[in-house]
Amino acid sequence: MSGKQSGLYTVVANKPIDDGAFRLAVAWENAPPRAGQFFLIKSGRSSVLLGRPISVAHYDGYAVHFLIMKIGTGTKELAETREGETVFMLGPLGNGWSDFLDRTPQNGKPLAFVSGGLGCAPLLYFVEELAARSSPSFHFYAGFSTASPKLTGMITSLPVPPQKLIVTTDDGSDGEKGVITDAIDVGAYAAIFSCGTTAMLKAVAVMCAKAGTPCFISAENHMACGVGACLGCAVKTVSGNKRCCADGPVFNAQEVIFA
Ligand code: FES
After folding, report:
1. Average pLDDT for residues 138-162, to the nearest whole number?
2. Predicted TM-score of the model (pTM)
3. Any ligand 1 atom below 6 A from CB of 23
4. What are phi and psi of 221, to 5 degrees?
5. Does one domain contain both 105 and 185?
6. What DSSP letter does each residue of 217-256 carry, written as one string?
7. Does 32 contact ligand 1 (Cβ within 6 A)?
């Protein structure tokens, strides 16, 4: 079980990675989080009220690892935390990718993981989770704004590396120049698991609907309580508003109504 906890936890490593992002590792002696789940995190001496929702990118048996972009006060404060300092965390929260595996047809086709930017984080952990119980057959499509060698290296050094890795960059500095959604034929896959911007997820969802390929997405949303109480993270779906934090963050893309 991965019951949620809250409190101050010790930073064991904090290192810059690509393009304004950093990798934060925090000691975690509780049950392992599930792939797809997230924590609300803020610096232990933060001036901000709310923690940022950050998906788990890796769990090494001792610490949970997060890939975070410096984009506001809360994440800048997190970027400045040093080993031995504390962060406040609430989690693990939400559902997991594996809740949707039984909706993936066994048709001999591989899976495809499709990410934009740091959207690769929860998919990296999903591969680790799958690799712990089988040898998944999958292709990884990773779109970045510019060459991101450390993130790309995390994909190629997964315990089971992808049979095929396709990288695109907006500026052409690595892989194909362009957007990742132009690089994929979704009909070639048993199912698509995707995380990135809402625009990217919508594009993937539309392509999958046309091809009849099951598609599961991790939705990005503003969050406050993180536990389903404030209704501040609504995701529109065909069966009404769902709470991203408690009913998601992973959803069947064909049930989500994109703006
Ligand atoms: S953040 Fe409060 S209900 Fe989701």
Report:
1. 96
2. 0.96
3. no
4. -160, 155
5. yes
6. EE-----SSSSSSS-TTEEEETTEEEETTTT-SEEEGGGB
7. no
Do 247 and 134 share a structural domain? Answer: yes
Cα of 121 from ligand 1 centre, angstroms: 22
Q: Which atom of ligand 1 is nearest to the CA of 244?
A: 4
| Ligand 1 atom nearest to 233, measured from its CA | 4
pLDDT over 50 at 1, yes or no: no
Pocket test for ligand 1, best of 37, 54, 241, 245 (most atoms within 8 A of CB): 245
* Statement: residue 97 has pLDDT above 60: yes
* Residue span of the structural domain in which 21 resides: 5-93
Ligand 1 mutation target, pool 37, 241, 243, 247, most atoms within 8 A of CB = 243
Q: Cα–Cα–Cα angle for 53, 215, 236, nearest 5°?
A: 55
Q: What is the pLDDT of residues 20-33, one digit of tens each?
A: 899 999 999 999 99
pLDDT, one tens digit per residue, over 187-204 is 999 999 999 999 999 999
Same domain, 245 and 129: yes
The mean pLDDT of 140-150, rounded to a whole number, is 96
